[in-house]
Design a protein that fits this description.
Number of strands: 14
CATH topology of the largest domain: Glucose Oxidase, domain 1
Number of domains: 2
Mean pLDDT: 92
CATH superfamily of the largest domain: LD-carboxypeptidase A C-terminal domain-like
Strand content: 15-25%
CATH class of the largest domain: Alpha Beta
CATH architecture of the largest domain: 3-Layer(bba) Sandwich
Low-confidence stretches: none
Number of helices: 12
Distance between the termini: 11 Å
Strand order of the largest sheet: 6-14-13-8-9-10-11-7
Largest sheet: 8 strands, mixed
Length: 335
């Protein structure tokens, strides 16, 4: 495991455009981030990109431009911070080469991000075992109520933290385990995690040590079905320690169920769609002789649209899931 170097007053903090451009609605938040970072740290730089007329509007710049600036930002970065999520992170990360990964190994930078940057965070863990942080991109960093906790974590002041909220719920089976489940945290945005596995062909020797955290937005029931099948085909649900489900698009799922009722006749909607869609795996793991059930924990502070106590997920870090639903992360997280 490679731990990032802790944040100090002299850390070089480089912002880089990996994906979409900052929207007009979020520009003030991004400007606030830059202002606050410059007030507290000596070396802060935004690696701006140059857009061309034919660049898709949903991308900050062309693939080549974003990759070039990413490499420049990486050279001396102690903290490499994606500016925004959206679409396009996988475009450039798929082109990282051995010399790029060597820079990560030498620099040990802090790397954080959210949504589309799930691609980068998990890529670095699976490729070189660098611990990264699934948390706000640069644009939304100070919009989060617990951003001070994040700074304490990456400064080395916090080596253990946990979450437990009334809405946490064990879905399957038997309403939770009888003892603590301990594993390695991976995941983030479900669609992007699937893209990572497809594009980079990352294949761990086993999924048995992992606890998979997933969230997503703008999915209907059939979209979710396809994504889960893609992960199930790789044996993730059959062998992982547990799954933690964050926010999904519940309104879209309700609409999908109504559509199915119109097509095939009325049927009562299931309480938990995720559990419903992978029920075969759940049953198979329960039927095994040594009974290794797939435990699924539903949480409400992980995913899009969460600004209060958003879960800070250390990708590659140790996680413990307690029988009462407490999610505990155990460091160290930096060195």
């Amino acid at each position: 495991m490679i731990l990032p170097n802790k944040l100090t007053a002299n850390s070089r903090i480089n912002f880089v455009h990996t994906s979409s451009p900052v929207s007009k609605a979020d520009m003030k938040d991004f400007q606030l981030t830059i202002k606050k970072m410059e007030q507290n740290y000596r070396y802060v730089r935004v690696y701006d990109v140059e857009r061309k007329e034919l660049d898709p509007r949903y991308l900050a710049a062309s693939e080549g431009e974003r990759l070039a600036k990413f490499r420049l930002a990486l050279k001396k970065a102690n903290w490499l911070m994606p500016v925004y999520g959206g679409t396009g992170c996988g475009d450039i990360i798929r082109y990282l080469r051995k010399f790029d990964l060597t820079r990560f190994r030498l620099n040990h930078p802090i790397v954080n991000g959210f949504s589309d940057t799930t691609f980068l965070l998990n890529y670095l863990y699976f490729k070189i075992k660098l611990l990264t942080f699934h948390y706000a991109n640069g644009c939304g960093l100070f919009s989060q109520s617990n951003h001070k906790q994040f700074f304490d974590i990456i400064s080395g002041k916090v080596t253990k933290y946990s979450y437990k909220r009334p809405a946490y719920e064990w879905l399957s089976p038997n309403k939770g385990p009888k003892k603590v489940i301990e594993g390695i945290a991976i995941g983030g945005n479900l669609t992007t995690f699937r893209d990572l596995l497809d594009i980079t062909r990352i294949v761990p020797s086993s999924w048995e040590n992992y606890v998979l955290f997933i969230e997503d937005i703008d999915l209907d029931m059939e979209d979710l079905h396809r994504l889960l099948i893609a992960l199930d085909h790789r044996g993730i649900f059959m062998y992982c320690k547990a799954v933690v489900i964050g926010r999904m698009n519940e309104k879209s799922f309700n609409s999908s169920w109504s559509k199915l009722n119109n097509m095939f006749g009325p049927k009562k909607q299931v309480d938990h769609l995720f559990e419903y869609l992978i029920s075969d795996v759940i049953e198979e793991r329960m039927d095994e002789k040594d009974k290794d059930p797939l435990y699924i924990l539903k949480v409400d502070n992980f995913g899009h649209g969460v600004f209060n106590d958003h879960m800070i997920l250390p990708i590659g870090g140790k996680v413990r899931l307690h029988p009462d639903g407490t999610v505990e992360f155990v460091g160290p997280f930096v060195k």
